[in-house]
């Protein structure tokens, strides 16, 4: 805060801090407090609101843990989101290293533009493109049939299609933090390790990965939280047997009409995502200041 006042002066600094406070209060704090309020109250008809039954209760939250199907989908969403983060890391790390340490300036510019252009359209349209590509009579099955790789079309919809769609949808949220971290690594350190006889794997394990841990942690946190809270990809690319927890939340709000239970489910997901964030920071030995960079 003092840095903002020093850089912009007391008047403009006060305006900036005021706008930040209004944004945090209106867009972050108020919606979450409202969600907690809904989650801790029963779903009552209007005539009974404010009556003796309108009390704070954990019934909506405990319902999730007592419902085996919803509990199983919740747990599946968590580990599947972690799998999305891990798969995205495997895709992005080699690319980020090449862009930061080996590619020329022109190659880096072309690659970043090529990666960014598809994200000029919204997530729904990009997911629909994957839906068309993986459709039963879509281009992928047509190519595989034409080349003789398969004899009959394959139904790609399901957990695998959701995984592919999410990795593509959130690739930039993993790529850019890792790229920014590796770009600051002095190339002479890699060259010195290579001159001392270190293998490629040892160079990455002992030199590159420790240096890029803040970027890796940031990318994993972003990707995990986006995947856990995603609705479009599971709804379009998933099968009836591959439901996502966000679909259940959506159903409580807009089909079941039980906003209280939907808010309770959303609150549980939010708490777990926050727990994962702090666990990743602890595991990577990274603090929030390093992530903010």
UniProtKB/TrEMBL annotation:
GO biological process assignments: transmembrane transport
Transmembrane portions of the chain: 12-29, 78-99, 128-150, 156-179, 214-237, 262-284
Domain of life: Bacteria
Stretches assigned to the ABC transmembrane type-1 domain: 74-280
GO cellular component terms, semicolon-separated: plasma membrane
Gene3D superfamilies the UniProt entry points to: MetI-like
Protein topology in the membrane: Multi-pass membrane protein
Family that this chain belongs to: Belongs to the binding-protein-dependent transport system permease family. CysTW subfamily.
Name of the protein in question: ABC transporter permease
Source species of the chain: Ectorhizobium quercum
């Amino acid at each position: 805060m003092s840095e903002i006042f020093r850089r912009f002066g007391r008047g403009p600094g006060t305006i900036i801090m005021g706008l930040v406070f209004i944004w945090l209060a209106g867009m972050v704090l108020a919606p979450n407090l409202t969600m907690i309020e809904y989650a801790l109250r029963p779903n009552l008809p209007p005539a009974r609101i404010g009556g003796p039954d309108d009390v704070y209760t954990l019934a909506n939250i405990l319902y999730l843990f007592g419902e085996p199907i919803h509990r199983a989908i919740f747990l599946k969403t968590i580990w599947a989101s972690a799998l999305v983060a891990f798969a995205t890391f495997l895709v992005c790390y080699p690319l980020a290293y090449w862009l930061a340490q080996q590619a020329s300036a022109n190659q880096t510019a072309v690659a970043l533009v090529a990666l960014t252009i598809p994200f000029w359209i919204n997530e729904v349209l990009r997911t629909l493109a994957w839906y068309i590509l993986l459709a039963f009579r879509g281009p992928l099955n047509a190519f595989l049939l034409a080349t003789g790789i398969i004899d009959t079309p394959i139904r790609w919809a399901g957990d695998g299609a959701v995984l592919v769609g999410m990795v593509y949808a959130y690739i930039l949220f993993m790529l850019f933090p890792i790229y920014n971290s590796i770009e600051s690594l002095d190339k002479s350190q890699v060259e010195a390790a290579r001159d001392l006889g270190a293998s490629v794997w040892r160079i990455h394990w002992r030199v590159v990965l420790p240096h890029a841990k803040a970027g890796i942690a940031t990318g994993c946190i972003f990707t995990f939280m986006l995947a856990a809270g995603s609705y479009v990809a599971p709804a379009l690319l998933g099968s009836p047997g591959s439901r996502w927890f966000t679909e259940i939340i959506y159903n409580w709000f807009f089909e079941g009409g039980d906003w209280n239970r939907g808010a309770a489910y959303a609150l549980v997901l939010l708490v777990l995502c926050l727990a994962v964030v702090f666990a990743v920071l602890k595991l990577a030995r990274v603090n929030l200041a390093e992530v903010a960079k």
